[in-house]
Amino acid sequence: MNKINSIRKDWSLIETLITQDRKILDIGCGDGGLMEQLENNRNAKTHGIELNRDLAANAIARGFNVVHGNAELDLSQYSNNSFDYVILSQTLQAMMKPKDILSELLRIGSKAIVSFPNFGHWKIRLQLLISGKMPVTESLPYTWYDTPNIHFFTIKDFLNLCNEMNIVIEKSIGLTSKGRQFDISESITGVNFFTHEAIFLLSYKNFEPIKIKSSKKVFAKNSVIAN
Amino acid sequence: MKTKFTTDTKLESEIAYFENINLKLESGDIIDSFKLAFKTYGKLNVYKTNAILVCHALTGDQYVAGNNPITGREGWWSRMVGPNKPIDTNKFFVICSNVLGGCAGSTGPKELQNGSDVAYGGNFPSVTIKDMVKAQSLLIESLNIEKLFSVIGGSMGAMQALQWAIDFPDKILNIIHIAGALKHSAQNIAFHEVGRQAIMSDPIWKNGKYFENNEVPERGLSVARMIAHITYLSENAMHRKFGRKLQSRDIISFGFDADFQVESYLRYQGKSFVERFDANSYLYLTRAMDYFDHDETFRKNIEFSHNPNNHLKYLIVSFTSDWLFPTIESKMIVNQLNSLSREVSFLEIDTDKGHDSFLLEEPQLDDVIKGFLTNNYAKIDE
Fold this sequence. Notes:
The complex is a heterodimer. Chain A is α/β, with parallel strands linked by helices. Chain A has a single domain (3-204), classed as Rossmann fold (3-Layer(aba) Sandwich). Chain A contains 8 helices and 8 strands. Chain A has helices spanning 3-16, 33-42, 53-61, 71-74, 98-108, 122-131, 155-164, 191-194; strands spanning 23-27, 45-50, 65-68, 83-89, 109-117, 167-175, 181-183, 197-204. Chain A has an 8-stranded mixed sheet, sandwiched between helices. In chain A, helix 5 (98-108) links the parallel strand 4 and strand 5 (109-117). The model of chain A has no long low-confidence stretch (mean pLDDT 88). By secondary structure, chain B is α/β, with parallel strands linked by helices. Chain B has 2 domains: 2-186 and 293-381, Alpha/Beta hydrolase fold, catalytic domain (Rossmann fold), CATH 3.40.50.1820; 188-287, Rna Polymerase Sigma Factor, Chain: A (Orthogonal Bundle). Chain B is 34% helix and 19% strand. The interface between A and B is medium-sized, with 21 and 29 residues.
């Protein structure tokens, strides 16, 4: 798959995760392509953030609500739960603080959609193993010294982080390098090996309040207290 | 309300008279009758959905496009407004009025006091941006336009656009706010104060009564303009335009003539300004900008407005080299609107032309304004 096709494929999968009439923030929205698709096909109300000045200008000129800015600095301005979905497509690996971004996504959105290239794909493992050099592939096409991708991680890494952050994976879609699509949660073995790109629909766990039957307030280690 | 329209043939401008209207100003003063000079471009459509109000900056006037009879030059934004221009008068009905307190035909210190043959001068009441917008809203009402499609302005014009969003959100659909801020900063007030002091220390100013002897405090007003003009540019733009180039000479004079091109340019700016602008009006309008402050109140005003404003769209634009209204000031507006989940777009345009960029050749500004207007107008047309 070339880059453009891969993005189109990504967008159409993202669209399948989104219900009608929702309010959406697209981080790194480019010139508004995905926003346009979601407005047309899902009757969504869209907002976008774009770092690149020319792309932001194009998106604004196309009539979209787009703020020219840096997601790592500018997400804090949005109020809690101000969007139904916050989308971060193919960008998490380029963020300075991916963990902070992830928690910001789920603060301002009820749900987050995150897609990224899997660094655990067998081609990448093989390249590093055989050549001993940092891998260059279709989904990670940059040499190590000029790549915008500064945090490399695999599906396993991502699942561990979600677990640590009490993030629920509601849906997950994997794509092989041939573009074949499968459900990551159902195909346990080899997922981290064969998945080329992954798309996750995330939300926070809802905890039942813990009832404590004690005159003294003693909290068990690692228990989570809901508000 | 009694409104009367006439045409000032000398100024080639329409004048709307508001008689016995008792306009209450923010200061508490009341102007019983006033007039606004305005120009319109293009045609209002049958449903009256294509009206755009353009608000002028500190020294602008109603001649936004076409010929300006006062200066004999093109209107101040004729590169932006006109047939097939970004604000396309083939499609939109564009209104621009001289602000209350101005000196191009609207009621201001230069005009005669009601029922007298003496000009207001220093007796003119203090006006604010809010007062200017209130007067504009009466003009729009008297033109029988219920809803403006857009209010657009740069600098002091941006202040008016923002004030429209606060005071009359139900009468507009969107604003385009260029090179503005929630408040006039301490530095900006400081520059205005120097300008005002230059005017008031000119012996001809005479407490604002210079017109009694048919005189003009030219020295003071031109110095005020020279200072202000520096703040509208940027160091890079000045360097690019003038550098240390000498004016009409090969060697320096070891005197105080205008040796450098930049000096000659500023002197020319000052001199030509005196011919078209009233010194008292300059005092009043700079003061109106100084008093503009929505720093603490903007968010509350938008969130708890009794006028519904959820439908409003905002386009906020700043320029990288604008140190008078820097990007950070625009971003404060954007942040507050985003925190309220409002429909806001923001662009910082990369240019070295300083605050004045909005009046100059900036293709990206043209593109976003044209696109924003066209696409949002198409949406209401559906």
